[in-house]
Design brief:
CATH superfamily of one domain: Alkaline Phosphatase, subunit A
Strand order of the largest sheet: 5-4-7-2-9-12-3-14
Helix content: 25-40%
Structural class: alpha/beta
CATH architecture of one domain: 3-Layer(aba) Sandwich
Bound molecules: zinc ion
Oligomer: single chain
Number of helices: 15
Low-confidence stretches: 466-471, 482-492
Number of strands: 18
Mean pLDDT: 89
CATH topology of one domain: Alkaline Phosphatase, subunit A
Strand content: 15-25%
């Protein structure tokens, strides 16, 4: 009988047919699935669903105006641009500080630095804070945070609510390192380590409800792959290359989400903690000032419904609004006592009658930076930035006469200080800042202090944070180095 089967050509036809059918079936399984198309009005129904994942992608040090979706002429961000085109893009989003830890504490807690108390290098978020990861975890989500910036490490209180919270093992070196930091202080590995960890997490948890926070760091470090386009040789050009490289990482995430058929039930949020200066106001880098180049950040929400035309919200919004918005869209409990607001009315208005977004217009939005954040022997030296209508008002408490005002509508790069211009309602602006400062101290009492030991300091130096960065000689040295690189370095 067996002999007969082996000799019969029909056996082979049958086997071949089975193989063909299997091949077709397996292809169907690996084709993947995109999110369904829908309208803005459909976004309201998301709050009724109980099958949504959330992926929060924080790209450290990403200024908005270097992305195609925000008008940049270089093709730095094809994947982010495509996501913005099918989702919701906030054209004018402000970070709450120009330094990672203060900015991220505010973003998660939906409170200004004045109210989180996280303003100095050894401050941590209080364990009394109820953070979004805790709310999601409580609601049954598997929660994971994967990061490469030591300022958001667990010892500063950022791991609250995460089942998994870790810095991946540095494995992947994409090839090009053209950062600002001296080579001995380079952070090992690359953001591909984060992406690969994320792909593994998504594959393992594709049948669970999950919340995944990815904190990308290569833009901060000006790291890019050798395959990234070369636009020139300055630090600013290298910064653009690193955006392209990070955008490719986002592309890998999107491919995997498509392949795992997760796009129809995953909400993706893309944000940044601050931008980066390239001598627009006499300094380079971040964590030293609060002008537009370090304050204007991208904010893109990609819902699990493909919006045919995409939505652009022009109104000024803040990073403290991110979690009130996402939790509202998903029908989850809010961050308690948030200073940020849900932006859903701004998204929905125009899609149907009766949406009132008036309360979200012309809010005063604030950012804060303790200029002595890294100088442990010195007391606080608070700098405040307020966006109010078309004005940016910058106030250094220790030198009130140095107040600056810019009209963002006629001077988008904030170059011309009009504080002495009679048309500026200076008393009114100053009163708003005073009200903001008087509105209360940290809600949980003073921020807990963490002993930032030598090892931690070395790790933070690896990010390029020297603890004496406000030194004008150092700024001059870096400026000169930047110019030299521009003139001399050729690698293509
Ligand atoms: Zn940062």
């Amino acid at each position: 009988m067996l002999r007969k089967l082996i000799d019969s050509p029909w056996t082979y036809f049958a086997l071949a047919s089975v193989l063909v059918i299997l091949a077709i079936l397996s292809q169907i399984q690996t084709v993947g699935e995109d999110a369904p198309e829908g309208t803005v009005a459909d976004l309201e129904s998301l709050s009724d669903r109980d099958d949504l994942n959330v992926i929060f992608i924080l790209i450290d040090t990403l200024r908005a105006d270097r992305l195609g979706a925000y008008g940049y002429e270089r093709n730095t961000s094809p994947n982010l641009d495509a996501l913005a085109a099918r989702g919701i893009r906030f054209a004018s989003a402000e970070s709450q500080s120009s330094w990672t830890k203060a900015s991220m504490a505010s973003l998660w807690a939906s409170r200004y630095p004045e109210r989180t108390g996280v303003t100095r290098s050894d401050d941590a978020i209080s364990q009394e804070a109820l953070l979004p990861a805790e709310i999601l975890n409580e609601a049954g989500y598997q929660t994971a945070g994967i990061w490469r910036n030591g300022w958001v490490a667990n010892n500063f209180g950022f791991g609250q609510g995460f089942d998994l919270y870790y810095k991946p093992t540095p494995n992947r070196n994409p090839g090009a390192r053209r950062g600002r930091s001296p080579s001995e202080f380079q952070l090992g590995g690359s953001d591909l380590d984060i992406t690969e960890s994320a792909l593994e997490f998504m594959t393992n948890h594709k049948n669970d409800r999950f919340f995944l926070y990815l904190h990308y760091m290569d833009v901060h470090q000006y790291v890019s792959s050798d395959q990234s386009p070369s636009w020139g040789t300055s630090f600013s050009d290298n910064y653009d290359r690193s955006i392209f490289w990070t955008d490719q990482n986002i592309g890998l995430l999107m491919e995997k989400l498509f392949e795992l058929e997760l796009l129809s039930h995953t909400m993706i949020v893309i944000a940044s903690d601050h931008g980066e200066g390239f001598f627009e106001h006499g300094g380079e880098g971040h964590a030293r000032s609060l002008y537009k180049e370090v304050q204007h950040v991208p904010l893109i929400i990609v819902p699990p419904i493909r919006l045919a035309e995409g939505v652009v919200v022009e109104e000024s919004v803040a990073n403290i609004d991110i979690w009130p918005t996402v939790l509202d869209m998903m029908g989850l409990p809010p961050v308690p006592d948030a200073e940020g607001r849900s932006l859903l009315p701004l998204i929905l208005e125009g899609s149907k009658e009766g949406v009132d977004a008036e309360a979200l217009r012309n809010r005063s939005l604030f950012a804060q930076l303790d200029k002595n954040w890294g100088k442990r022997t010195k007391g606080p030296d608070p700098l405040i930035s307020m966006v109010d209508g078309s004005y940016r008002y910058i106030f250094l408490e220790s030198v009130p006469e140095a107040t600056e005002v810019y009209d963002r509508s006629t001077d988008p790069l904030e170059k011309k200080n009009i504080v002495r211009d009679n048309s500026v309602p200076i008393a009114e602006l100053q009163a708003k800042v005073k009200n903001f400062l008087d509105a209360g101290s940290p809600v949980w009492g003073d921020a807990p202090r963490v002993d930032v030991d030598e090892m931690m300091q070395a790790q933070l130096r690896a990010l390029g944070y020297a603890f004496t960065m406000t030194n004008p000689e150092e700024v001059q040295r870096r400026k000169k180095a930047a110019e030299e690189v521009q003139q001399n370095q050729k690698w293509d």
